Amino acid sequence: MAGGGTGGHFYPIIAIVEEMRRVIDEEKLVNARFYFMSDDPYNTKVLFENDIKFIKVTAGKVRPYRSILNMVDWFKTGWGLLTALFKLYFIFPDVVFGKGGYASFPALFAARILGIPVVIHDSDSIPGRVNLWAGRFARRVALSYPDAVKYFSPDKAAVTGNPIRREILNPITTGAYEFLQLDKGVPVIFIVGGSQGAERINDVVLRILGELVKRYQIIHQVGGANLEDCQKRSGLILEKDPYKNRYKIFDFLNDTALKMTAGIAKLIVSRAGSTIFEIANWGIPSIIIPIPESISHDQKTNAFTYARSGAATVIEEENLEPSVLLSEINRLMENDKLLADMAAKAKKFSNPTAGYTIAKELIAIALTHESR
């Protein structure tokens, strides 16, 4: 398994490994071993729990703007390619799965040189550069969005959806209000900026926080790097507010808290990464705020592709003002019929079997390679 850099790459890999173990049990296979090759383990605890061995290789980003770091990262990538070739030769796996992103490039390059079968998955409506390159020689290309099919050979590409860990597939309602210390009589809004938080979203939310808590309960995942600042600011804003207990701030929600939040949230405000597929699976209406195109080429397209399904509305970051976000939240929350329609369309968009579909194909290819 190769990828990394963000939770949007890492957690779908974990979801696929979980499903591969299910297939292995169903088909009574033995001696399966899993490796994760990347520049960073991202979450060593999760790797350990899933019995996945981490193989470190360096990898450099190619930034779409001029930076001295681009030159530095060329050397990191070059060393990573040599390292990956050496390490992959001694492991010699039966199949290599690439999730995309710069961190998957060394493993995919080594697999290409060594003649090891490759399967890739792309979570975006416009595929990234590494996956566009790998798609030329990959045996199979799994995609989250139908819009991405045109970028690959039709005889190898399939729209599978985005793999989601079984642990968070099904929301929990029982005990959720008690666990999160919330009032059952007040609507809940979940605000999340991705696995690392989003400073711009956090800032706008804090500027309308007093207005929000008058009508709603807010669960706000701000990211580890932003927690201290957001705690201080929200504490000052709500210091004398009679509704201050309606605001719950977290750096990161664990699986239990996330499932409980999904079980009671009436609306989600989110970035346009792979979180979209979790939101869709939960069947929750959403306001999507994509990262600007100057930073990420794919999020804007992802957001509008999802919005066309009717499950979400979009606010571009250049238009993200406190009054705009507050007005859109109120507009949606005041229309139960619209929310119900959006929830149904979100469910229609989701594909909870994505991980299993990819896992079955990976096992089939691995067994074919092994038999040779």
What structural keywords apply?
372 residues, alpha/beta, Rossmann fold, 12 strands, 45% helix, 14% strand, globular
In short:
The protein has helices spanning 7-26, 44-49, 68-91, 105-114, 129-134, 176-179, 199-207, 209-215, 227-237, 255-264, 275-282, 299-307, 322-333, 336-349, 354-371; strands at 34-38, 52-56, 96-98, 118-122, 140-143, 157-159, 188-192, 217-221, 247-250, 265-270, 286-288, 312-314. By secondary structure, the chain is of the alpha/beta class. The strands form three sheets. It has a six-stranded parallel beta sheet with strand order 9-8-7-10-11-12, sandwiched between helices. Strands 3-4-5-6 form a four-stranded parallel beta sheet, sandwiched between helices.
Protein architecture, described:
This protein folds into two domains: 7-164 and 352-367, Glycogen Phosphorylase B (Rossmann fold); 170-349, Rossmann fold, CATH 3.40.50.2000. It is 45% helix and 14% strand. The protein has helices spanning 7-26, 44-49, 68-91, 105-114, 129-134, 176-179, 199-207, 209-215, 227-237, 255-264, 275-282, 299-307, 322-333, 336-349, 354-371, and strands spanning 34-38, 52-56, 96-98, 118-122, 140-143, 157-159, 188-192, 217-221, 247-250, 265-270, 286-288, 312-314. A six-stranded parallel β-sheet has the order 9-8-7-10-11-12, with helices on both faces. Strands 3-4-5-6 form a four-stranded parallel β-sheet, sandwiched between helices. Helix 1 crosses helix 15 (354-371), helix 3 (68-91) packs across helix 4 and helix 11 packs across helix 14.
